Amino acid sequence: MADSPGFFHTPVMLNEVLETARLRPDSAVIDCTCGEGGHSAEFAARIPDGSLLCIDRDPAILEIARSRLTAYPNIIFANGVFDRIDEIVTQYNFPAADFILADLGISMFHLKEAGIGLSYTDTGSLDMRLGPDENISAERVVNTFKEQEIADIIYKYGEEFESRKIAHEIYRNRPFHNAADLADAVKRVKRHNKGRIHPATQTFQALRIFVNRELEVLEQFLPKALKVLKPGGRIVILSFHSLEDRIVKYFFRDAEKNEYGQILTKKPLTPSPEETRLNAASRSTKMRAFEKRI
N or C: which terminus of the chain carries fewer CB neighbours within 10 A? Predict the structure, then answer.
């Protein structure tokens, strides 16, 4: 399954990322969420005399990137969660970075091919873990947690105002063993939802964030990333929902206030209308950038 995906994830806001990166042929770059290697392929082509560190928490998807990027010998592939960026840089003796990217979106591989329950139609799994390092699956959450705990998770991480009703529906109909059945349960609660967004979107987001500790990982990553960045180096974060964007916004604001550098995006950049037309998955992207003080 992991060896030959039928498609690659389209790198989001690629032009804006490359423009901000200002790569030189000898730049040292860290792609903290390599995925299938979409952004990394573009970086590698532009730094023939430089170094590229590709990090991903999922060893299967990292192998996809490795097979895709065989033409570039100057790449290090590291399996791990990106909040360990400082440890990984030390482990591989990687130089201070000129540019760091963290694309917080979910890859098409995980959505379409991995079979881990991120798709609303997945009948094979309700796992949602993006790598082997996490202990609690979404299946365990919905089948063993207390009703109030489930409601709190859905409200806190999904910003879902009908979290109590959804948690009650889950509690009284469990056990659930696949994503499709869980999505149907949420749809029963939100049956009057006629919008273009799937009624289970916020519930699935909440479970995925909780299971993978996504906000905690991001909060721990940001100060470490700033430390491994070279003076004058830049970091770009691509976020896809308000919880992530808020963390990045306030971290960059505080870093600028404490004279660690300057914010390059006073307001977050968003994809062009043309990009959202060609790649609907990019529509919620927000890009923030920061330059470390020289």
Answer: C
- In the predicted model, is pLDDT for residue 9 greater than 70? no
153 contact partners, CB below 8 Å, separation of at least 6: 141, 145, 206, 207, 210
Whole-number Å distance between alpha carbons of 167 and 186? 9
* Cβ-contact 233, 99 below 8 angstroms: yes
pLDDT digits (tens, 9 = 90+) for 142-169: 999 999 999 999 999 999 999 999 999 9
Provide the residue ranges of all domains of the chain, joining segments of one domain with +. 14-109+214-292, 135-212
Strand pairing category for 261-263 and 286-292: antiparallel
| Strand-strand pairing, 51-56 and 286-292 | unpaired
Q: Which residues pair with 8 in a beta bridge?
A: none
Q: With 0-12 CB in 10 A as exposed, 13-18 as middle and 19+ as buried, what is 27?
A: buried
pTM of the model: 0.93
Q: Are 27 and 99 spatial neighbours (Cβ–Cβ below 8 Å)?
A: yes
DSSP state of 271: -
CATH superfamily of 14-109+214-292: Vaccinia Virus protein VP39 (3.40.50.150)
DSSP calls for 214-243: HHHHHHHHHHHHHHHEEEEEEEEEEE-SHH
List the one residue out of 238, 276, 269 whose CA is nearest residue 39. 238
Tell me which residue of 221, 187, 226, 223 sits closest to 204, measured CA to CA.
Answer: 187
pLDDT reported for residue 1: 32
Whether the per-residue pLDDT at 133 is higher than 80: the answer is yes
Q: Could you tell me which CATH class the domain 135-212 is placed in?
A: mainly alpha
